[in-house]
Amino acid sequence: MPGPAWPGWLLVALCGATGVYCLLRMRSRVEEQRRAAGGEALMGFGMAVMSVPGTAFTPPSWTWPVYAAVFGGAALRAVWAARTGPHHLHHLVGAAAMVYMAVVMAGSPVSGHDHGHGGAGVPLLTGVLLLYFAGYVLVSGVRLLPVAAVAAGVAAAGWGDRPELARACRLSMGIGMLAMLLTL
């Protein structure tokens, strides 16, 4: 990720912590939660690794095709899962955005400041993804606000099955995706 190092490290920490929590959510008793948590953990860790500042580590050139393949596989899995409900489409968009960023990073020069856009401004796909994730963050934030912890409900549910924590993780990954897309 180009630019100053500290925002990149903050993004690494945010996405890494989200990935860890999503891994822990995979122990849920609810099967659908476990499946979603696995994909979200992959996304969180992938975003964390991709966000490491270029001043700390410059990945080898073979890294970006591997990213594209891994997240391409995640996108195919999301397409398959989308037949059971439209809520999986967000995972498809997220995985596709990761593939797109990996392709852009593969084509960028070593300096990491010009990502192949030739100074022509924001490419259309980057703009569409920015709009999508900005909308997703706003909607997720609004959905998170009214979730009130009812004492009996919180005590009965395990900490990995709390919907407000899962929503907060999705919100933080959406914010992270916006930050990553802004650096392209």
Short description:
With 184 residues, the protein is mainly α.
Care to describe what's here?
By secondary structure, the protein is mostly helical. The chain has one domain. It has helices at 5-25, 31-50, 63-82, 89-106, 124-144, 151-156, 163-182. Helix 1 runs antiparallel to helix 2, helix 1 packs antiparallel against helix 7 and helix 2 (31-50) packs parallel to helix 7 (163-182). The chain is globular. The termini are close together. 30% of the residues are buried. The model is unreliable at 111-120 and 149-155 (pLDDT under 50).
Secondary structure elements and pairings:
Elements: H1 5-25, H2 31-50, H3 63-82, H4 89-106, H5 124-144, H6 151-156, H7 163-182
Helix pairs in contact: 1-2, 1-7, 2-4, 2-7, 3-4, 5-7
Instruction: Give the percentage of residues in beta strands.
Output: under 5%
Instruction: Tell me the series of helices and strands, N- to C-terminal.
Output: HHHHHHH
* Whole-number count of domains: 1
Total helix count? 7
Low-confidence stretches: 111-120, 149-155
For the sheet with most strands, the description reads: none
Q: From the alpha carbons, calculate the radius of gyration and give it in angstroms.
A: 17 Å
**Strand-pairing-aware structural class:** mainly alpha
How many β-strand runs?
0
Q: Portion of residues in helices? A: 55-70%
Q: How would you describe the shape? A: globular
What average pLDDT do the residues reach?
82
Termini gap: 8 Å
